[in-house]
Each structure stands twice: as C-alpha cells, then as structure tokens.
Predict the 3D structure of the following.
Amino acid sequence: MKYLLTSCLLIIFMFACTSQFHAMNWKQLNHFKGRVWSVTFSPSGKYFATSSAETSLTIFDQNFSVLWQTNDLIKEVASIAFSPDEEYLAIPKYKNETDVGLIDLNSFQAYHILSGHTDWVTCLDFSPDGLIVATGSDDASVRIWKKIGKSYMFHQQIPDHGASIANLCFSQNAKYLAVCGKNIIRIYQKEYDQYLPYQTITSDARFLNGLAFHPNKNILTVGAYNGTILVYQDNGISFVLNQRLKAHKKMVHSIDFTTDGYYMATGSWDSCIILWKRMKSQFSKIGELQEHKKQVYDIAFHPNGKILASGSEDNTVLIWQIQF
C-alpha cells in the first residue's frame, strides 16, 4: 500500500511538472518578402526588431506596431542587436557589406558607422555593460570596438580564426568572448583591456552556428550542423563538455535563454523550436513548437520570459506566448 501511494504521488508530480508548459502562436508578422534572418528584443522589451532577406529592417514598439522601416540602405542582414542602454540598434552590412551601422533609436538615423572589415560582416554582439561591440566577418577576423564618449572606436583586432566567423557572443560579465566558425570554437578571456586566447575547441561537427552563454553561469551552448546542442561549462581552467543534447534533425541555427537562465530555446533548420529546462546542472526537453513551415533562423525571448519570437525561411515571424 505504501509503495502504491508513493508511485501514485510520483506519477502526479511528474504530470504536474510536464503539464506546466503551454505555448500559443499568439501573433504572426507576415509582411516580409524574403526569409527572416534575425529577430531581437531590446533589453527592457521597449523595442522589437527584425531583418529579412529582401534587405528590409523593421523596428516595432512593444505592441508590435511598426515604428520605423528601411529597405534602401542595408544589404541582406544576418544579425542585429540592441545596445544595453537602448540607445542604438547595430546593423551589419549597413550601406556597405563590410560596415556596421549604429541607428540612433531616438531619431532613427545612422549615428555612427563602424568600418574596417575586408569582407562581409556576419555577426555582432554588445558586451552586457554596453562598453564594447564585437563584430565578426567572412574575413575570418573579429574586431573589438570600445565606447568612447557616445561613439565606438576601433580598439582591437582578433585575426585568423581559420574560417569565416559564423557567430560570436559575450558572457554575462564580459569576461569571455566566444567565437565560432566552421567546426572551431575559440574562447577569449578579458585581460585588462584586451581579449586574449583562453581556449580553442575543435568539434567533430561539420559546422557550428548557434551560440549563447547562460545569463548567470559560465556555461556556453553551441548549436551544430547535425542538430546537436553542445553544452560546455567552465571549471576555472577550461570549458569542458558537460552535456550533448540531441533533439533536432538539422542545423541548430539559434539559441537563446530566458533572463533568469532557467529555460533555453533552440531553433533549427528542421523548422522546429525546442524548449529546454535546466535542473540540477542538466538541460531537459520540455516542449516543441512546430508551426513554421521552413527553416528557423533566429529566436529571441522577451525579457519577461513569457514571449518568444521566431524568424523563418517561410517569410514569417511568429510571436509565441509561453507559460512555463
């Protein structure tokens, strides 16, 4: 009888845990004429921005009403990012494929142009304190731009990754900068005023693209061509592979966390989005979102963790309401 009661309580507990996740396709933005490359919320959720293959970029307000749109100054953009203070939106390939434009969010005018790469700019990220912008390029280099006054000035070049830069990101305290391209991950550690080599990881994956640091732990997640998510954890000496998640059937192109770090979303070329929960240092799958018809290129959580945006090859952005 005691065993039966324990088993029943365990089943009820497991059902309660799995039934807490709910997701609804709440809103669809479908005015795009080409694939949607990038979606991102500003740090407070005041703005939402998208970039798409027909060379348009749109900034929305918090109700998803259009505030500003351009389609005549940018090339096909694969990555955009808001500054932490919500003063700027950084746009790769602005006017020229080798430049990055900083759009002033008060005037929606280009405030500053970052020039110096010799091939297409593919990705960028702001440090959490907003004092640094890192840009990656098909020229296989990363350039570090430091905020001086209200402008960002060239500060450091990290050359010769060995392949085109697919993605890069800062850790939560800007201590680390992770860079991936082809099957190589290079991690740089901030020493005084420079980012110096900390670790190189060569993966057995054919290609890597999705890349994200956990928001409050030294955990780096990497998406691979075969649909695997690699989870590395820093032990103070190096980042060690802690978990290998296999759920997607194709390339994991984008990874994002809720701001509290409890949940992770992964978007893939298999058109699926998978939600994960971190418990006892391990990630477990808790649900799937399957309403996109083609590859998912980018995903982004709203700062409140209750909304997820996804952009796809099917020319749409889906806005999901999520209850964990």
